[in-house]
Amino acid sequence: MKTTLNGTAVFLITLPTMGAEPLRDNPSMTTATDFQRDLDLGLTWLNTFSNLGEDFYTPVSPQALPQPYWIGRSEAVARELGLPAHWLASDELLHALIGNRVIAGTRPLASVYSGHQFGQWAGQLGDGRALLLGDTANGLEVQLKGAGLTPYSRMGDGRAVLRSSIREFLCSEAMHGLGIATSRALCVVGSDAPVRRETMETAAVVTRVAPSFVRFGHFEHFSYRDQHAQLKTLADHVIDRHYPHCRLDTGNPYAALLQAVCLRSADMVAQWQAVGFCHGVMNTDNMSILGLTIDYGPFQFLDAFDPGHVCNHSDTAGRYAFNRQPAIIYWNLSCLAQALLPLIGDQTLAIAALETFKTAFSAALEQKMRSKLGIPAHCEIESVQLRSLIEGILSLLAHERVDYTIFWRRLSHSDGGRNSEAVRDLFLDRAAIDAWLRDHAQCLAAVPTQQATELMLRTNPKFVLRNHLGEQAIRAAKAKDFSLVATLLTLLESPCDEHPGFDAYADFPPDWASGIEISCSS
């Protein structure tokens, strides 16, 4: 399971520590005297990751941006951080979260990692445009994405742009609203400073929050460099902080860690498949050691159901197609297993831990599809009958390219099949859908109608972040209208609620939506 780098030495790039621009010289500052002091948010910063030592990161301060403005803010995430609500309206925090002020107690850093990108070993990577400020006493790490150059920016500029930042902000909170394990987003802050991508765009910074931003690629980095002491330090950090049970009743905590990550990853990708979410760039450096959905770039929620849909315009080979996501997660986990092998010591143990993914994924997806169908966990149903029901509807949806979210929501309102005209209207082959609806009704015969309906309505969302909704919010934001960002955030925080008066946001996508292209620069 060991892979070498063909004898090529990989060196840690170092750059001088880069500090923010002098606050008194920034024309956007209106109260320079106050801004010369560190901003005390009243949070206790532990800086646990920075205590691992500088083999794991390079200290880097954010680079300032002129004339910042709020684009979107999540009060829910502020509460999670223990941040008083008044800070989300303050100029002080606005400047701090775009890199113009220092937050008292933080130790900004960019971490180093490596990884496989599109199936190929890419060598050393690292936080090229993300800075970890530190972790707070409530166990959450805070990161700025787009805050400037780091030693790992390679040929990049360390910046994020308005469109990608809005997409990440909204999708982070949308996934949380759906109950899917994810990083969160406190806010997105904009600046009219120019940033070149395919065209000239404007800058933005997303403040991301998660229990940890450690990735599979962190382990790969030290394993492939034969730095086993650092590998053990990292693994012990993750176990002690996030998987303490791996040290209990086990002779091999590192095999237990691998198995725990497999189980969390299995549940995460089962949730993706059930809700119709495409990640788009599932490289090992984009895989969370906690089984969180992270790094929202070329993502998409399916409109018409197409199992082979590729949402990333850069993915010309279709490696990360929707129906390949479970297999890719397993492949990525095998890379993690390989990286952990020097600590596990026994390849048989590593393989056994890895294989738990398959069973866990199948069980998790079945449970989630049962809920989508309105069949409670306690309701007995033959596995052959359940699989036939699931495979039957997915085949019909794919054959007619039926809108995935709308189908499941209409099914949820069908009163156990007694009011199914709205469902039937989605299909040209009425005989086929009628036959399936009869099978579905038969499976629900022993379930009280209200119970089945309530289960489906809290499982099948009315609102998801479709590409065209994100695009509309971006277009409005470019004109300094951030109201649609706020509206979408409200809907996506509780996507299974009806939200009367906002049905247009749950309607079919317009024709022009099919022409939206998202890529790794998104």
Instruction: Note the overall shape.
Output: globular
Outline the low-pLDDT stretches. 1-34
What percentage of residues falls in helices of 4 or more residues?
25-40%
Largest sheet: 6 strands, antiparallel
Calculate the mean pLDDT score and round it. Answer: 91
Count of DSSP strands = 12
Q: Kindly give the count of domains.
A: 4
Straight-line N-to-C gap = 34 Å
CA-based gyration radius: 24 Å
Q: Approximately how much beta-strand content do the residues carry?
A: 5-15%
Walk me through the structure.
This protein is of the alpha+beta class. The protein folds into four domains: 194 residues, no CATH class; 125 residues, no CATH class; 83 residues, no CATH class; 49 residues, no CATH class. The protein is 39% helix and 12% strand. The strands form four sheets. Strands 2, 6, 7, 8, 9 and 10 form a six-stranded antiparallel β-sheet that branches. Helix 5 runs antiparallel to helix 6, helix 7 packs parallel to helix 9 and helix 15 packs antiparallel against helix 16. The N terminus is likely disordered.
